[in-house]
Specification:
- Keywords: DNA-binding, Transcription, Transcription regulation.
- This is Helix-turn-helix domain-containing protein.
- InterPro entries: Class_I_gatase-like (IPR029062), DJ-1/PfpI (IPR002818), Homeodomain-like_sf (IPR009057), HTH_AraC (IPR018060), HTH_AraC-typ_CS (IPR018062), INH-QAR (IPR052158).
- It holds the Pfam family DJ-1_PfpI.
- The protein is an alpha/beta fold.
- Helix 6 packs antiparallel against helix 7 (about 185-195) and helix 12 (about 290-295) crosses helix 13.
- The strands form two sheets. Strands 2-1-3-4-8-7 form a six-stranded mixed β-sheet.
- It has three domains: about 5-195, Rossmann fold; about 220-260; about 265-320, Arc Repressor Mutant, subunit A, CATH 1.10.10.
- The chain has 14 helices and eight strands.
């Protein structure tokens, strides 16, 4: 499967703050480093600058091999940030960037923002009437400046099909891995996450605000219990059983997991079961009933219900996007 060109937009003419490099590096690492053993061809990354670096530009300036013409023909366009002046001082987003984003979207590109890049998408009108997010420190400004955007400051990222937005910093990595998952499947995304030494999948609905008061040590036994649960998803797991294995009360287990992940134990389990089902659908030809059983979703009907609700397509349609020459019984 060809995943095409990813155009990564860098506002060269107005300079980058040092911390903006984080989001740029995330996208460049995920989409710009070939992974031929995972998928071949990989993405074709174009780093595209807005204007020319100015000698007196604040922050850092980058030389880029492409200008905004690099957006032409791109399947995906990513704006990781806009200059600080566009966020804090109300300076307009460069008009040539706004026009280029509109043109790319009109020609079928998937348009993505990380952190303050949402201000550029909003200026282009691509977020009008849509739910969107940005870093929680800037969502109030985004909502005030663009009241037509349905700003949600409580989530890591929002996937609205052909327009996606994320919060800042590590949430940008979550969205980039989500794109890989959409394009190349759960197995490829999981393996890439492992190479990046990050969690394989954090759902977009997980909270931006995570209480870090969970002890840094493993004295509560939470990590081993979660690893055990992932290895036994075919079982009917309960909060009581997981709490017992962690040697805490169900109420304490609920609180610890909520603090650590921003989600409830039941939602965490459902996310793990769906991720397992995705991997099985991609890598085997097992029946839907078998996939449902091995992932702990019970029946094919239950698998279909949750898949449609969470993934947006049926299990059958998802499998057809990842054809494999496996036998129906063994998956080999």
């Amino acid at each position: 499967m060809s995943v095409g060109v990813v155009a990564l937009v860098v506002p060269a003419e107005m300079g980058l703050r040092s911390w903006d490099l984080y989001e740029v590096s995330i996208a460049a690492t995920v989409f710009g480093v070939p992974q031929p053993d995972l998928a071949d061809p990989w993405y074709d990354l174009r780093i595209c600058g807005v204007g020319s670096p100015a000698a007196d530009a604040p922050g850092l300036s980058l030389r880029t091999p492409y200008g905004l013409e690099g957006l032409d023909g791109a399947e995906t366009v990513i704006v990781p940030s806009v200059p600080d002046a566009c966020v804090e001082d109300g300076a307009p987003v460069p008009e040539d960037l706004v026009s280029a984003l509109r043109n790319a979207y009109d020609h079928g590109a998937r348009v993505v923002s990380l952190c303050t890049g949402a201000f550029a998408l909003a200026a282009a009108g691509l977020l009008d009437g849509r739910r969107a997010t940005a870093h929680w420190m800037h969502t109030a400004q985004l909502a005030e400046r663009h009241p037509e955007v349905l700003v949600d400051d409580s989530v890591l990222y929002v996937d609205d099909g052909d327009v996606l937005t994320s919060a800042g910093m590590t949430a940008g990595l979550d969205l980039c891995l989500h794109l890989v998952r959409r394009d190349l499947g759960a197995h490829v995304a999981n393996q890439l996450a492992r190479r990046l030494v990050v969690p394989a999948h954090r759902p977009g609905g997980q909270a931006q605000f995570v209480d870090l008061s969970v002890p840094a040590t493993d004295e509560q036994g939470l990590a081993p219990v979660l690893d055990w649960a992932r290895a036994h998803l075919d079982r009917p797991l309960t909060i009581e059983e997981l709490a017992r294995r962690a040697a805490v009360s169900p109420r304490t287990f609920y609180r610890l997991l909520r603090r650590a992940t921003g989600t409830t134990p039941l939602q965490w389990l459902l996310n793990q079961r769906l991720a397992r089902a995705q991997t099985l659908l991609e890598s085997t030809a097992l029946s839907m009933e078998k996939v449902a059983a091995l992932s702990g979703l019970g029946t094919a009907n239950n698998l279909r219900h949750h898949f449609l609700k969470q993934v947006g397509v049926s299990p059958g349609d998802y499998r057809r996007a990842f054809p494999r020459p496996f036998s129906a019984d063994t998956g080999t």
